[in-house]
Write a structure and sequence with these properties.
Blueprint (H helix, E strand, L loop, with lengths): L6 E7 L5 H14 L4 E7 L4 H8 L3 H9 L8 H6 L2 E7 L7 H8 L2 H5 L7 E8 L6 H14 L3 E2 L23 E3 L10 H21 L1
Helix pairs in contact: 1-8
This protein binds flavin mononucleotide (FMN).
The site of flavin mononucleotide has 20 residues, from helix 1 and strand 4.
């Protein structure tokens, strides 16, 4: 009897205060719910200067730093091995963080060799404030995905909780959450459910494409 080939979904993120991490875990959970799917959860490398100036001596950031030490740093081979990828970043001035941008900037060889072409992909983010740039971050995160030839996917409005006018996340461009100015808010259950729905959707499409 032929052994079914398992499909690999990579969820790679950066998070300083844990909100994007929670979305990443929900995306991973959604992808894992699809049969024949193996999920790789990875963080991106932290910059030494951020470690020294923003994490060391800051109790909240230190706690999240320690929580993430068991999660492996994303390598180029993880990106190569993945059949589908979901990228997550907190918003920085309406854009992705430099740490996630650094991951994209390290992908020249993969781009030259067309190694990411045809792989389904999606994005998610966290902002401090309601109108802090969730959509701009998500849309600009999609630009490198298009250069890489990936198949960019979002969240359809048929997903529960997508049509709303509440102070919470959930956009057609990707899952989001509102962290609060001091990171004092937690992702709402709807934010996590929408993140889970994107993970499941990307995994299902990736399985179909294999
Ligand atoms: C340099 C910098 C720029 C930021 N720019 C924005 C911004 O444009 N809009 C916003 O709502 N929050 C902004 N924030 C807040 C972060 O988005 C917030 O800390 C993050 O969403 C929390 O996610 P995390 O818990 O995964 O680190 C900024 C934070 C920093 C450090």
């Amino acid at each position: 009897m032929a052994v079914e080939k398992s499909v690999k979904i990579l969820v790679v993120y950066y998070s300083l205060y844990g909100h994007t991490l929670q979305l990443a875990q929900a995306v991973a959970e959604g992808a894992k719910s699809v049969s024949n799917v193996e999920v790789m959860l990875r963080r991106v490398e932290e910059f030494e200067v951020v470690k020294q100036k923003a994490i060391d001596g800051n109790d909240a950031a230190q706690k999240i730093w320690e929580q993430q030490q068991d999660i492996r740093v994303c390598s180029l081979d993880d990106l190569r091995a993945a059949n589908g990828v979901v990228f997550g970043s907190p918003t920085r001035f309406g854009n992705m963080s430099a740490q996630i941008k650094q991951l994209f900037d390290s992908m020249t060889k993969l781009w030259l060799n067309g190694e990411m072409e045809g792989k389904p992909a999606g994005v998610f983010t966290s902002t401090a404030s309601t109108h802090g740039g969730q959509e701009t971050t998500l849309l600009t995160m999609m630009v490198p995905l298009l250069h890489l030839g990936m198949i960019v996917m979002g969240v359809p409005y048929s997903v529960d909780g997508m049509i709303h006018n509440e102070a919470r996340g959930g956009t057609p461009y990707g899952p989001t959450t509102i962290a609060g100015g001091q990171g004092e808010l937690e992702p709402k259950p709807e934010d996590l459910a929408i993140a889970k729905a994107l993970g499941k959707r990307i995994a299902e499409v990736t399985v179909k494409l294999q």
